[in-house]
Specification:
This protein has 202 residues and is α/β, with parallel strands linked by helices. It has a single domain, classed as NAD(P)-binding Rossmann-like Domain (Rossmann fold), CATH 3.40.50.720. It has helices at residues 12-26, 50-77, 100-119, 141-144, 147-154, 165-176, and strands spanning 31-34, 82-87, 125-132, 187-190. The protein has a four-stranded parallel beta sheet with strand order 1-2-3-4, with helices on both faces. Helix 2 links the parallel strand 1 and strand 2 (82-87). Helix 1 packs parallel to helix 2 (50-77) and helix 2 runs parallel beside helix 3. The chain is globular. The protein starts with 11 loop residues before the first helix and ends in a 12-residue tail after the last strand.
Length: 202
């Protein structure tokens, strides 16, 4: 059984309605996956507008913050336990010129995860990140549509390819299961070895 709703994660009232309808129709949620995100605008900090900067943080940080608030309150009323999975990015660690808003917001979400881990330990709510590298999603569509750009993008990835969406989903499935009950506060990087290739050639 499932429900489908259109939600603007930047709007706290939209998220509140989502949780209200979810609880009415399906009961108290046990798993929260914060997966909505927006990428860079391709501008350096000096050239960005306040609106562009705010949009990255409203979507990538405020959205998960609002959702976590509702989820935590619901789980506490139900007696605790649960799973929070935040989708960050390798750019929570790796800086990228022209993507300061994206990188900074993903770094903020990483540390929100860590703080929640400490706050929710007594509630037995696990909180973890998945930090993907390049994935074949609409966010990377321009590169996927251009073989030359794609070849350049995967050159720094040891496995020389982008991830399939199902590969990220399988990791999320593990983190949502009881098999991961002792994992909390962790970033699970899934990037084809990209992070190991940073700084090579020195």
């Amino acid at each position: 059984q499932a429900i489908v709703m259109r939600v603007d994660v930047r709007d706290p009232s939209s998220i509140a309605r989502f949780f209200e309808q979810t609880e009415q129709q399906l009961g108290t949620p046990y798993i929260l996956v914060n997966d909505a995100g927006v990428d860079a605008v391709g501008k350096h900090v000096a050239d960005m507008t306040i609106e562009e900067w705010d949009d990255r943080f409203k979507t990538n940080v405020y959205g998960p913050f609002y959702a976590c608030q509702h989820f935590i309150r619901a789980r506490r009323k139900a007696g605790g336990k649960g799973k929070i999975i935040n989708i960050t990015s390798v750019h929570e660690t790796i800086p990228r010129a022209g993507a300061a808003g994206y990188c900074a917001s993903k770094g903020a979400l990483r540390n929100l995860t860590r703080c929640l881990t400490l706050e929710l330990a007594d509630d037995h709510i696990n909180v973890n990140n998945i930090a993907p590298g390049m994935v074949k999603t609409s966010m990377n569509q321009p590169a996927l549509d251009d073989p030359k750009v794609m070849a350049e993008q995967v050159e720094s990835i040891p496995w020389k390819r982008a991830a399939e969406p199902w590969e990220i989903a399988k990791l999320a499935l593990y983190l949502a299961s009881d098999d991961s009950n002792y994992a909390s506060g962790q970033t699970f990087t899934l990037d084809g070895g990209l992070m190991m290739n940073q700084g090579q050639g020195a």
